[in-house]
């Protein structure tokens, strides 16, 4: 579906089996450096990727991200990930350096300029000293909610360039930075407010949901398993808003299946479960025996009704 009126004209598409959505854009070189920068941040510290995934999943469960449903534009995955990067820059000691600090570490081969904007930063994360911050990912997640729940976002400019919050500037000239209820500056294109289209209502809900999540994280059900059958730990944060506790018997992850026979559905279930165990929960998965008991070195048993090779990593 073409969206010619977007800030960068795109063609949006959806992958039917998984429901994942994506965009196709031509000649947007700044987006390439944004992507490389986020990848660099994820490679600098192992806590960045799971923290970013948890925040995005939480925002979708709270109705702050995803498809709008009457509340106006929502936070994009890029904006949410950039909020995580900014938060990690503000820790003491910081988990991630500011973009200005990264520029100083960039070598001659790392220098880049796109459209007049300085996009220089190291390509090799090993040039950075390991962070002195030893907090766990769970501790950082709880601190993320407390941090943003306590900020007066309407008065601030969140700057990943400097790694700190600045007073929100007045509206600039045409083509300049457009401040809003949430002013989140792009790390390279400094005239771009990544959250410029997010309305006040969504920003207020974001702040309220952060305060609610921070309160949950201070309770016993975040640190200790619930004895009442309720979601606990991170799963308690991912429970969709408005779900009555008395109706919750567990944490449900929907797995879309195609309405067809054969082993296609079984294959999709295996891939979905493997994704949740490996990518989401960080488990190490090994091929199992006939009754599902892990046995090192044993070959993966194939579905007897499946004549195709199993997908890689099944």
Automatic annotation (TrEMBL):
One of its GO terms (molecular function) is poly(A) RNA polymerase activity. It comes from the Eukaryota. This is STPAP polymerase. It holds the Pfam family PAP_assoc. GO terms for cellular component: nuclear speck. The gene is Tut1. PANTHER family: POLY A POLYMERASE CID PAP -RELATED (PTHR12271), SPECKLE TARGETED PIP5K1A-REGULATED POLY(A) POLYMERASE (PTHR12271:SF127). Its cofactor is Mn(2+); Mg(2+). Residues 296-314 have a biased composition (Acidic residues). Residues 292-314 are annotated as: Disordered. GO terms for biological process: RNA 3'-end processing. Residues 138-192 form the PAP-associated domain. The keyword Metal-binding applies. Residues 3-40 form the Poly(A) RNA polymerase mitochondrial-like central palm domain. SUPFAM superfamilies: Nucleotidyltransferase (SSF81301), PAP/OAS1 substrate-binding domain (SSF81631). Keywords: Magnesium, Metal-binding, Transferase.
């Amino acid at each position: 579906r073409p969206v010619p009126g977007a800030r960068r004209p795109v063609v949006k598409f959806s992958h039917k089996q998984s429901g994942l959505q994506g965009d196709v854009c031509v000649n947007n070189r700044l987006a390439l450096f944004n992507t490389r920068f986020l990848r660099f941040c994820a490679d600098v510290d192992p806590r960045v990727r799971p923290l970013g995934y948890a925040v995005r999943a939480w925002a979708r469960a709270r109705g702050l991200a995803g498809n709008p449903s009457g509340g106006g534009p929502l936070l994009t995955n890029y904006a949410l990930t950039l909020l995580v990067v900014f938060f990690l820059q503000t820790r003491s000691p910081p988990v991630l350096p500011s973009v200005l600090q990264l520029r100083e570490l960039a070598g001659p081969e790392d220098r880049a300029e796109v459209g007049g904007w300085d996009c220089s930063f190291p390509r090799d994360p090993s040039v950075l000293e390991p962070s002195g911050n030893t907090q766990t990912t769970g501790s950082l997640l709880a601190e993320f909610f407390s941090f943003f729940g306590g900020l007066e976002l309407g008065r601030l400019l969140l700057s990943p360039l400097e790694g700190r919050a600045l007073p929100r500037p007045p509206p600039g000239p045409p083509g300049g930075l457009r401040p809003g209820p949430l002013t989140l500056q792009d790390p390279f294109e400094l005239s771009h407010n990544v959250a410029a289209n997010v309305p006040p209502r969504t920003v207020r809900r974001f702040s309220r949901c952060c305060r609610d999540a921070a309160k949950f994280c201070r309770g016993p059900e975040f640190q200790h398993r619930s004895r009442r059958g309720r979601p606990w730990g991170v799963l308690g944060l991912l429970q969709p808003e408005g779900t009555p506790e008395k109706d919750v018997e567990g944490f449900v992850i929907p797995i879309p299946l195609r309405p067809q026979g054969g082993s296609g559905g079984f294959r999709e279930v295996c891939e979905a479960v493997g994704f949740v165990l490996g990518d989401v929960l960080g488990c190490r998965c090994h091929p199992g025996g006939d009754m599902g008991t892990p046995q090192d070195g044993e070959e993966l048993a194939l579905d007897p009704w499946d004549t195709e090779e199993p997908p890689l990593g099944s």
